[in-house]
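User: Hi! I have a protein structure encoded as tokens and I'd like to know what sequence might fold into it. I'm fairly new to this, so please keep things simple.
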């Protein structure tokens, strides 16, 4: 006589359910270190102190906590070393990364970010930015080499899908240089979108004269610029800055000018 096997009760041990229930309320790293060197790119990155305090839930991958990278240093090619540090709060949930008081410091520059990076597979930014930038460091490390100097403050937002972002904000600079221009007390509203940088409500002192106006820089194809400016008490010797040969002129002028190139 053939025996029939009795049905077995379902197992109470389900690996998937067990993993999803795992929750780590306290993950801490104290005084960790990072060292990375890439010979081909001539890049060296070192961080002497890493401190993190995180909670982790494996269900839907939820991470929350704070991170601090201190005493960091980056050296790239022959552009010198720059001290770096990162700190702030973060939360990863539903494929979105939220940042709070997240600060990146490099040399004398600092950028603080608050907001979200949605859909990490096709990332979209929605963040507010507060930046304090040392132009001479940016000129050297980014290999711009356009005689940039001075300290710039920027407050604004960055939104949209990466890399097609839109940035809007207000920029101020008490004193600096760019290319052959010297300027003071610069204030302007900025918008960057589609490889176009537009500035409006520009006001400041450039080459000794007071200037107001608006304009645009384009990085789509060969770089180009155009601007409409009103100058007041501008020394007309200043055009010699832009010409290969000196023009023997003198005096002060006021009026409206259009420039492009």
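Assistant: Happy to help. Inverse folding works backwards from shape to sequence: for each of the 261 positions I chose a residue that suits the local structure. Here it is:
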């Amino acid at each position: 006589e053939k025996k029939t096997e009795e049905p077995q009760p379902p197992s109470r041990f389900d690996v998937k359910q067990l993993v999803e229930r795992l929750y780590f309320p306290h993950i801490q790293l104290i005084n960790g270190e990072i060292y990375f060197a890439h010979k081909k790119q001539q890049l060296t990155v070192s961080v002497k102190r890493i401190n993190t305090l995180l909670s982790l839930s494996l269900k839907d991958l939820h991470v929350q906590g704070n991170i601090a990278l201190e005493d960091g240093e980056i050296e790239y090619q022959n552009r010198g070393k720059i001290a770096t540090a990162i700190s702030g709060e973060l939360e990863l949930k539903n494929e979105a990364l939220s940042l709070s008081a997240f600060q990146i410091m490099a040399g004398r520059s600092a950028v603080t970010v608050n907001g979200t990076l949605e859909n990490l597979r096709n990332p979209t930014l929605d963040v507010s930015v507060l930046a304090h930038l040392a132009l001479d460091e940016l000129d050297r490390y980014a290999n711009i080499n356009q005689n940039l100097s001075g300290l710039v403050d920027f407050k604004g937002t960055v939104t949209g899908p990466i890399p097609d972002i839109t940035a809007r904000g207000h920029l101020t600079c008490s004193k600096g240089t760019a290319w052959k221009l010297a300027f003071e007390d610069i204030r302007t509203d900025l918008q960057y979108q589609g490889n176009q940088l537009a500035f409006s409500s520009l006001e400041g002192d450039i080459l000794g004269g007071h200037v107001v106006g608006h304009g645009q820089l384009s990085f789509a194809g060969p770089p180009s610029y155009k601007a409409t400016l009103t100058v007041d008490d501008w020394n007309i010797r200043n055009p010699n800055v832009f010409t290969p040969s000196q023009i023997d002129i003198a005096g002060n002028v006021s009026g409206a000018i259009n420039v492009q190139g």
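A useful reference point when you look it over: Residues 79 and 143 are 8 Å apart (CA to CA). Feel free to ask if any position seems puzzling.
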